[in-house]
Amino acid sequence: MPDIIQLLPDSIANQIAAGEVVQRPASAAKELIENSIDSGATSIKLIIKEAGKALLQVIDNGSGMSETDARMSLERHATSKIRKAEDLFTLHTMGFRGEALASIAAVSQLELKTRKENNELGILLVVEGSSVKKQEPVATDKGTAIAIRNLFYNIPARRNFLKSNPVELKHIVDEFQRLALARPDINFELIQEDDVIYNLPEAKLNQRIVALFGKSYQEQLASCQEETSLVKISGYVGRPASAKKTRGEQFIFVNNRFIKNNYLAHAVITAYEGLLQEASFPFYVLFIKIDPKHIDVNVHPTKTEIKFDDERAVYAVVRSAVRQALGSHNLTPTIDFQADVNMIGKLNQTRVESSEKIYEEQFGNALQRSNLQNWEKLFDGRENESQLFHSSSAPLSRDEKTTMRFESAINTHQEFAPTESAFFQLHNRYLVRSVKNGLMIIDQQVAHERVLFDKYLVFLRGNSGSSQQSLFPQSIDLSLADFALVMEMEAEIKALGFIFEIFGKNTLLISGIPADLTGNEKELFEGLIEQFKKNQSELSLPVRENLARSLAKRAAIKSGLRLEQEEQKRLVESLFASSNPNFSPEGTPTFFIFETSKIESYFAR
After folding, report:
1. Kindly report the CA angle at 549 between 547 and 552, in degrees rounded to 5?
2. Interval 243-292: pLDDT, tens
3. For 131-158, what is the mean pLDDT?
4. Binning pLDDT at 50, 70 and 90, where does residue 26 land?
5. Quick check: 412 and 577 in contact, CB under 8 A?
6. Which helix (H) or strand (E) holds 443?
7. What are the φ and ψ backbone dihedral angles of 199, each rounded to 5 degrees?
8. Torsion angle, CA of 200/204/209/210, rounded to 10 degrees?
9. In whole angstroms, what is the distance from residue 562 CA to residue 392 CA?
10. Using CA atoms, how far apart are residues 247 and 228, in angstroms rounded to an integer?
């Protein structure tokens, strides 16, 4: 029987390696910029077209390469950083494996120009799919310029897995921002389709943060400093009041290398304990300096995950540093009683305790009076029953009342069809009423999400969403990636009822919102985009369904909001007229039936 194991050709081995190192254009951009940083460059320019699918070019003024080094750089595992195994634990550079260029060249059409400072001419290499097509002298500036065209041109299946241009652009911008934050001492420039997106001169870290994320960050940064014998922590943390509902602006660098570490991220969030609203994520840029011998960066192909030999100690220092920064800068949150569900819950608890005290004063001396009289007072018809439950949640102000408008219900589900008995609201969170087989408890927020989701899907399918004009249109500045995302979904967002137009570079003017919504136009629009991105990162949904889910999530009434009887009735009617009254769009149950038999079991019948 012949032998069946054989060595792979280099071209195929490089394509396999590319699958680990180069997943998308952003991966290639990261690897090339890291090489430029390692070359000692003080100026790095990234040029992209069609979100890096057509062209991705990195130009630097670094040390450049000789002809031999340029040719060797395209060989797999060719590196200037490693000479022996021990060198893996003394690394101070960004790249070290020698995989990046070889992997990228295996799946693209690559052109490399490079010149060392003391050479009159540089070298030009043209490579397609690991095969060198041209090698010749060329007049070029000092440093290196690498252009990647038609990424994955020779692997159509991989190219088909790339996302839309706005999504791929967002990944490139994310990588660019991380590298620009890691080295504020280097000039960075990002050009897309001949438009200068970022032009970042050498600056201090706080100036680099403002240049990347906008002037609004100028007022929310608190300096963070801590030093021990093991690690040194530096950087900035954001105000709790400025925390967002989506992740993405949390940066941890170890020896100037961006890393993803849930354990250290938890240390930061723990330091914010009691200062953040639920499911909010604060902004932070933290640098950890540590002796390379205490870490291992060679645990993941993309080098974004590392291991510490004493992770608990680093955790404690990070948490302490952030707590100290928040305390020394007096960064306390702005309390919003309408939005902070936890605060409303505490107020409701106080009201419940107050109601219980009233109840004890009224009925506490039951043994000294007639039991019959007491029970008659407590259950004097359904109207009194409703008033009793409402007393545990004192009315909120008129501004906190909802103005829900629902379509009339049709074809209600008979199995769970409510009886004619009145609703009552429990703790301004649940709607309760009796049904044929027990007690129905409805989560008002989840139920409203289902109702709105169905309505918005109808709007999106028929482009029929109605709008209400704003008296004072508001402008909103978006990041490059968010602006591209909105432009791609412009027709769908307008179908929901939003009215907006381009108002400058990456800026929109919001002049109308869906007719059934109230609130700040800017906050609603920003909330829609944030929720859309959150869904996009966690789920694989069609654009229309994602938009309908996102707006329903942001526009639904919240727990803690008191509803009038008519509003309660119309909400439940609309729920049972929806496409799936049992569950929210996310699959959360909208109601629960507390069956009569279960109730009877508590009374030992």
Report:
1. 105
2. 887 777 899 999 999 998 889 999 999 999 888 877 788 999 999 999 88
3. 91
4. very high
5. yes
6. strand 438-443
7. -135, 100
8. -80
9. 12
10. 29
pLDDT at 517: 83
Residue whose C-alpha is closest to residue 318's, from 223, 231, 222, 220: 231
CATH (domain of 601): 3.30.1540.20
Burial of 113 (0-12, 13-18, 19+ CB in 10 A): buried
What is the residue range of 315's domain?
208-328
Please list the residues that pair with 509 across neighbouring strands. Answer: 475, 501
304: amino acid identity, one letter: T
- Indicate the SS3 state at residue 125: strand
3-state secondary structure of 442: strand
Return the C-alpha torsion angle 179, 182, 183, 188, nearest 10.
30
End-to-end alpha-carbon separation of the chain, Å? 78
Round to whole Å and give the CA distance between 105 and 128: 7
Strands 221-227 vs 231-238: parallel, antiparallel or unpaired: antiparallel
| Angle CA 555–557–561, to nearest 5 | 145
Closest of 560, 562, 564 to residue 337, by C-alpha: 560
Among 165, 185, 202, the domain-final residue is 202
Query: Please, which residues bridge with residue 290 across strands?
Result: 231
Q: Are residues 439 and 502 in the same domain?
A: yes
Q: Based on the structure, what is the number of domains in the chain?
A: 4
Q: Which two tokens stand for residue 355?
A: 């109601």
Residue type at 546 in one-letter notation: N
What does the block give as tokens for 53? 């699918």
Residue ending a domain, among 350, 367, 392, is 392
* Tens-digit pLDDT profile for residues 44-58: 999 999 999 999 999
Q: What is the C-alpha separation between 490 and 510, in angstroms, rounded?
A: 12
Between 369 and 10, name the one with better pLDDT: 10
User: Within 188-249, where are the H helices?
Assistant: 205-213
Closest CA to 456 of 495, 426, 487: 495
The torsion of the CA quartet 528, 534, 540, 546, rounded to 10 degrees, works out to: -10
Please check the confidence at residue 79 and state whether its pLDDT lies above 80: no
| pLDDT for the residue 369 | 40
Percentage of residues in the chain having pLDDT higher than 70: 76
Q: What is the DSSP letter of 488?
A: H
Would you say residue 89 has pLDDT above 70? no
Which range is most confident: 134-143, 363-372, 476-485?
134-143
**Does 5 reside within a domain?**
no
Q: What is the rounded average pLDDT for all residues in the chain?
A: 79
CA 454 – CA 240 distance, rounded (Å): 34
Per-residue pLDDT at 481: 79
Domain shared by 264 and 402, yes or no? no
The strand pairing partners of 43, in sequence order, are 187
Q: Does residue 194 sit in helix, strand or coil?
A: coil
Query: pLDDT (tens digit, 9 = 90+) per residue, 201-224?
Result: 999 999 999 999 888 888 889 999
Res. 413: pLDDT tops 70: no
Is the pLDDT at 466 greater than 80? The verdict is yes
Would you give the DSSP letter of residue 42? S
For the record, the structure tokens of 6 come out as 């054989």
**Phi, psi dihedrals of residue 366, rounded to the nearest 5°:** -60, -35
